[in-house]
Write a structure and sequence with these properties.
Spore Coat Polysaccharide Biosynthesis Protein SpsA, Chain A; 9 strands; alpha/beta; single chain; 10 helices; 2 domains
């Protein structure tokens, strides 16, 4: 039997991004009856449903409202309403290549076992030359190809809901996303961990290409790192057996503060005085980002 896909997209009021995403989904080489799009809006004010449905005209499309804030709530509602065998998760700031859905389905169909399929995510910053945008693009390991060598399987830490597909039956078996995560991040990694415990591997399929469109700022990056730290605390509270893997016991406030201060004092003057840019500033971003993550981790009260 030919598999079909349900594309689940949570959104928080970014209609301008949705326009581009829905346009790329209309250009799929997969037949229209091979996939549906389930868009779940949990923005505070709510999007204009009539206008969004107009943007999705021609697609099998369902527009849902979720009053509770958070991507986990939105994605779980999308899973609940999905009608097809394979659920493809996309973020609302993505666009995809025309063969995107076909490649996800093909990767599942060629496997005799249940798998997750991770597509390639290409970072596309709004301002490519902006230093913090270049840093974010460089620091997130979303392309696993090394020269001509391709990685075929990755671990649960690469369960990125910006571009990944999972059999709906397996999502239902593990209970979907944990809605208890306090803020940004780690609910997707935790779902990947639960699936890995059920021996469901993550297969990397570089032909299922998506583009992540973002506009980074230093303040936004640090806020995300802090929020990610809080969620990491909850993740490790749920899975204490993973604490050693994350070296939590070896982190202390004086150590992390000293590293952040040293990076700023040593490398920032090099940037200002000698107009050195990328390498020293990346060291600064690394250090202050890790400090923000640590503060979030400690504020969680779980570690």
């Amino acid at each position: 039997m030919t598999m079909k896909a349900s594309v689940v997209v949570p959104t928080c009021g970014r209609e301008n991004r949705l326009r581009d995403l829905l346009s790329s989904l209309k250009q799929q080489t997969a037949e229209r009856d091979e996939f549906e799009v389930v868009l779940v809006d949990n923005s505070p004010g709510g999007l204009d449903g009539l206008r969004i449905r107009k943007l999705a005209e021609g697609l099998q499309f369902e527009f849902l409202r979720e009053s509770r804030t958070g991507a986990a709530y939105a994605r779980n509602l999308g899973i609940e309403k999905a009608e097809n065998d394979i659920v493809i998760f996309l973020d609302d700031d993505m666009t995809v290549e025309p063969d995107f859905i076909k490649e996800h389905l093909r990767a599942h169909e060629k496997e005799e076992r249940a798998v997750c399929v991770l597509g390639e995510i290409r970072q596309t910053p709004a301002i490519p030359g902006k230093l913090i945008s270049k840093y974010v693009s460089r620091s997130v390991p979303l392309n696993f190809r090394l020269g001509d060598v391709s990685v075929s399987e990755v671990d649960y830490g690469c369960f990125y809901t910006a571009n990944i597909s999972v059999p709906r039956s397996e999502l239902e078996r593990v209970g979907g996303f944990d809605e208890g995560f306090p803020c940004y991040g780690w609910e997707d990694i935790e779902l990947g961990f639960k699936l890995q415990q059920r021996h469901i591997p993550i297969i990397y399929e570089p032909k299922a290409v998506g583009y992540h469109h973002f506009d980074a700022s230093l303040g936004g990056y640090l806020r995300k790192r802090y929020a990610s730290g809080k969620s990491l605390g909850y993740f490790l509270f749920k899975h204490p057996e993973l604490r050693e893997e994350f070296h939590i016991a070896n982190i202390s406030f004086p150590t992390i503060l000293a590293k952040a201060a040293a990076a700023v004092l040593i490398f920032l003057p090099a940037v200002l005085l000698f107009r050195l840019t990328e390498t020293p500033m990346y060291r600064v971003f690394d250090a202050v980002g890790n400090f923000a993550l640590y503060l979030g981790l400690k504020s969680s009260g779980k570690c």
